[in-house]
Design brief:
The chain is an alpha/beta fold and about 475 residues long. It is about 25% helix and about 25% strand.
Length: about 475
């Protein structure tokens, strides 16, 4: 089938199976929302009314609609209503402080800001909005990146989809997808809305909870889920009897992204559900380049994030010269085709001779497989040595008591920077105990000189950590 406007796709799906569940919101221990399901036809009719309500509030084709709602049916309804008007959903975290939210709004200049549920006008027609309208961009998520300064990443892809399109990574058309991640992040947004476009039933968690995720996979017959490594780690660390309660037989694939996955975590998942069901994707929201790798292929190239599947990539030194295979440098990408994959509002691309960089450091092996070291801006220079926080974090996360951690460089009069680890532990472990554990995995200069205990998860539900903010909080 040819591509069609997203609004038309929802009408097409509703006409073919009106009573099929489209979205179900389920409770978790942290957020005890009532369980509720909306069918395809209910979603179609309600978003027709909601789109007309947004139109009366001034939304026009090509406008941004800023959406700051928690994971919910209403979040998706707001996006669909925008698409039906040819407007661009611009998701933001509903937990943003007022100052940061206002900075984003000033950048986007949206026609409408949705930070609480806007009820559809009951007098508005639920008939389709004709003629169909196409948003010039599919989405416009935000990113603070390593700097913490907000920017908007407007997709180069228009608001079109194929409701008869094939699934990927084990996801099936008309299948069932678990949505455990925050929808204001690009990965959960793209893969869950992409699932809706091909008729999937979304089972949406308001917050991730490890035990609940396993329960809902079995209860709803979930065949696909998008996880970040933090989630994968938390599920692995459940008591064995809890994990054994659930078969996970319905899963055809999981995809992980957003942060480096410690090899021992990935291997444990491969042992748990089978290598053929474990996929990894590396890309920025900007999508200039993408790598993809399956579980069986990863086992032959342990630690890699795959080879370029879209676009071209190279690794260079600071002067822009390609480095030898196996040597760490900055990763540069060149997108496929002539159409830009994105544009920034509030930032400039890091660009050199037609190549762009997201600031990631890594290397390629002799077979062209890419490996990530860390972000360029997160590199720690301690006594003249280059130390990549992600490598130290991966070693820390192997400790059985480690719940979450982040490694940063703290200003030091002697070394320039010293390696400092912020750790959340399930039981008391001394500094010397942590150092002894790391000494079996890291050379001495990479081992943190100081440790800080915290009681809350260091990373958010999307597996992200803002190291620049952590450094600022701990610097004089």
């Amino acid at each position: 089938m040819a591509l069609m406007p997203i609004g038309a796709a929802f009408r097409w799906l509703a006409e073919r199976d009106p009573g099929r569940p489209s979205i179900t919101i389920v409770p978790t221990p942290q957020v005890d929302v009532p369980r509720r399901t909306i069918t395809r036809v209910e979603l179609e009719l309600h978003t027709n009314r909601l789109a007309r309500t947004y139109e009366r509030l001034g939304v026009k084709e090509g406008d941004f609609v800023t959406i700051g709602l928690p994971n919910s049916i209403e979040f998706y309804e707001a996006c669909i209503a925008a698409w039906k008007l040819g407007a661009i959903p611009q998701p933001i975290s509903y937990r943003l402080p007022e100052r940061e939210r206002q900075e984003i709004i000033e950048l986007a200049k949206p026609a409408l800001v949705v930070t609480s549920v806007i009820d559809a006008d009951p007098d508005a027609s639920d008939e389709p909005l004709l003629p169909d309208r196409t948003a010039p961009s599919l989405k416009a998520p935000t990113s603070g990146g390593s700097t913490g300064r907000p920017k908007i990443i407007v997709a180069g892809q228009p608001g079109l989809c194929d409701p008869e399109g094939a699934g990927t990574f084990g996801a099936q058309p008309n299948g069932t997808q678990l949505v455990p991640g925050p929808l204001y992040h690009n990965g959960p947004f793209v893969f869950s809305t992409g699932g809706l476009f091909i008729g999937q039933h979304l089972v949406v968690m308001p917050r991730f909870d490890a035990a609940s995720a396993l329960q809902y996979i079995d209860e709803f017959g979930v065949d696909f889920a998008l996880f970040v490594p933090t989630m994968m780690t938390r599920m692995l660390r459940l008591p064995e009897e809890e994990r054994a309660r659930w078969s996970l037989d319905s899963l055809r694939g999981i995809l992980h992204l957003a942060a480096p996955c410690p090899p021992h975590v990935k291997e444990a998942w491969i042992d748990w559900i089978g290598a053929e069901k474990v996929w990894e994707l590396y890309a920025g929201t900007e999508a200039q380049g993408v790598t993809i790798i399956s579980g069986p292929e990863w086992l032959e190239h342990r630690g890699t994030i795959g080879r370029p599947a879209e676009g071209t990539m190279k690794v260079t030194d600071p002067d822009g010269n390609e480095v030898p295979r196996g040597e760490v440098g900055e990763i540069w990408m060149q997108p496929p085709g002539d159409r830009p994959t994105y544009r920034y509002i509030g930032a400039e691309a890091r660009e050199r001779d037609g190549w762009e960089s997201l600031g990631d450091m890594g290397w390629m092996d002799d077979d062209g497989y890419l490996y990530i070291a860390d972000r360029r801006t997160d590199l720690i220079l301690a006594g003249g040595a280059n130390i990549y926080p992600a490598e130290v974090e991966a070693a820390l996360e192997e400790h059985p008591a480690m719940l979450s951690c982040a490694v940063i460089g703290i200003p030091d009069d002697d070394l320039g920077q010293r390696v400092h680890a912020i750790v959340q532990l399930s039981e008391e472990v001394s500094d010397d105990g942590l150092r002894a554990f790391l000494a079996e995995r890291l050379v001495q200069y990479k081992i943190p000189r100081s440790f800080e205990r915290v009681s809350e998860f260091v990373r958010d539900d999307a597996g992200k950590v803002r190291r620049s903010a952590l450094v600022d909080e701990r610097s004089p």
